[in-house]
Amino acid sequence: MTIEVQDVEKYDSSSLKSNGTVQDDQSNLREAPDGGISWIVLIGCFCGLFATQGYGYSWGVYLDYYNRHVYPGEMTNLTWIGSLWFGLTNITGPVYVYLVGKMGYRWMTGIACILSCFAMMMASLSNAIWQLYLTQGVLSGIASSLVWFPCISAPQQWFSSKRGLAVGIAISGSGIGGLVISKIVRAAIDSVGYRWSLRILGFLQLGLMGISFLTVRPLNPLPKDVPVFDFSTFKNSKFWILFTIHFIGNFALYIPSGFVPSYAASLGLSDDVSSNMSAVMSVIMFVGKISNGFLSDYLGRSNMTMVCSVMTGIVCLAVWTTAQTAGQLWAFVVLFGFFGGGYVSMITSVIAECVGVELIESATGWLFFAWMFGGLFGQPVSAVIIEHDNGSYTGAIIFAGALFLGAGVLACVLRFMRSGPKLFVRI
Fold this sequence. Notes:
Elements: E1 4-5, E2 15-17, E3 21-23, H1 37-57, H2 59-70, H3 75-88, H4 96-102, H5 104-123, H6 129-158, H7 163-192, H8 194-215, H9 237-266, H10 271-299, H11 301-320, H12 326-349, H13 351-355, H14 360-369, H15 371-388, H16 394-419, E4 425-426
Helix pairs in contact: 1-6, 1-7, 1-8, 2-3, 2-9, 3-6, 3-15, 5-6, 5-8, 6-7, 6-14, 7-8, 7-10, 7-12, 9-10, 9-12, 9-14, 9-15, 9-16, 10-11, 10-12, 11-12, 11-16, 15-16
């Protein structure tokens, strides 16, 4: 059997495109070095996503604690705190190219560093849910958005042949961050109370995002004379498919991390077990992001996007819906962590293959802006479904699984748009 190999696109050093084409002297532009200083940039990206997305993946610990001890019986209202954060963490997407052209990575990460710490300090002083909306939701979400896009874009610029691995490592910061932060938060809540846990989290974010401020840089100077909204990527049909994958998939992505702790509690499992499940899910997502990213460099990024998307949906529908014991729920946590983590890294690493590296900034901004709607409404819709079903999680789980399968079908379409009818091709 002959397996054809299609090379990934190389960085086009002759131009940087936004709404038009910005020509630069080729001698001033660099090819992706795939090593050396690239790893320093990658460490900064990892730290930025560790601090911000790690908080997002550990949000379920706060949600469960607030619902049971601080604001009992307010599950739907409380889910809006996390939803505001998940939605606003992508709010700057449409204007990202404009912001990065006017401000640069350093100003964006620097502002985020201060704002994120401030948000947690103010949250620790709150006495009402609406105050948590403003602090843990809005302020923290905006800070996360300012860090998210540079830390997602930079690895795609600084790496070429190792792009899948690099993106996986960067995004794995969210998984390992979720593991570490959820354990720190739980331990802090138990020992010094939830208010001090928020202050500790704020200082942790200040230090980690400070590393991002010092290290995350674009590979080449970015065009400054760009429109506020850059629609050039929407001329690409493959981009439309990828945009839809991002849009529908994110409605489902945060449902497991947000609801597994409370689902475990509904089965009668202890607080320690439910907290450990969030932590283990985060660490398996860490493994899934890196391992699937590594495999994609050899098996093809579009191929792995298709596999991870479909498998994540199957795991939700086949494993989570039937999980009635601790062992069955642990199986779901591990499987979802692996394929869900792979899903996140794959739909990111395939961006350059769809639009070309010269349009990564614009494409990244719009694609992750598509996450805003799922981040904003995914958990509240699931909470409404759970309450409508008298506390049963089955409807919400089916909702998540069906969306992932829909994303998987579109990933198959994207794969064959790129490869044609060929089955055995690395693409």
